[in-house]
Amino acid sequence: MEISTLATYHCLAFVWYFFVTYSITHVRTGERPSEVFLYGGQWKYLTVLNLVLQAVFYGVSFLADVLRLIKKLRCAKRVISSRDLLFSVLAFPMSTFVSLSFWTLYAYDRELLYPKSLDGVIPLWLNHAV
């Protein structure tokens, strides 16, 4: 795949994850059930932390692609190696665990993870994007 196409993809993925992270952290606070976000707010949930990690990963990937496009090879090698380390150690294992565990438990018993009281607070598209 060409570097410019890859840079475009990484930029769009970064913007998407940034938008979803912004959307989930700015859910209307007045309508939230108080027992759901007690102690630590949304930052205690692994799904929100995973969104932030994905945004950081795609931001680093986009930076690596831009550095490769402008021929800054010394800087690009360091950023690429840190991107690969970030992906293999944190981003891929965490996103796999979060999605598999969430949807398995959601299919088993929805009330364990996502009570029906949250349907009016968090839109359906945002739940699936997370």
UniProtKB/TrEMBL annotation:
It is a multi-pass membrane protein. It is found in: Endomembrane system. It catalyses: 12-(9Z-hexadecenoyloxy)-octadecanoate + H2O = 12-hydroxyoctadecanoate + (9Z)-hexadecenoate + H(+); 9-(9Z-octadecenoyloxy)-octadecanoate + H2O = 9-hydroxy-octadecanoate + (9Z)-octadecenoate + H(+); 12-hexadecanoyloxy-octadecanoate + H2O = 12-hydroxyoctadecanoate + hexadecanoate + H(+); 12-(9Z-octadecenoyloxy)-octadecanoate + H2O = 12-hydroxyoctadecanoate + (9Z)-octadecenoate + H(+). The keyword Cell membrane does not apply. Keywords: Membrane, Transmembrane, Transmembrane helix. The chain crosses the membrane at residues 7-25, 45-64, 85-108. The keyword Cytoplasm does not apply. It comes from the Eukaryota. One of its GO terms (cellular component) is membrane. Signal peptide: none annotated. PANTHER family: ANDROGEN-DEPENDENT TFPI-REGULATING PROTEIN, ANDROGEN-INDUCED PROTEIN 1-RELATED. Belongs to the AIG1 family. This is Androgen-dependent TFPI-regulating protein. It comes from Pelecanus crispus.
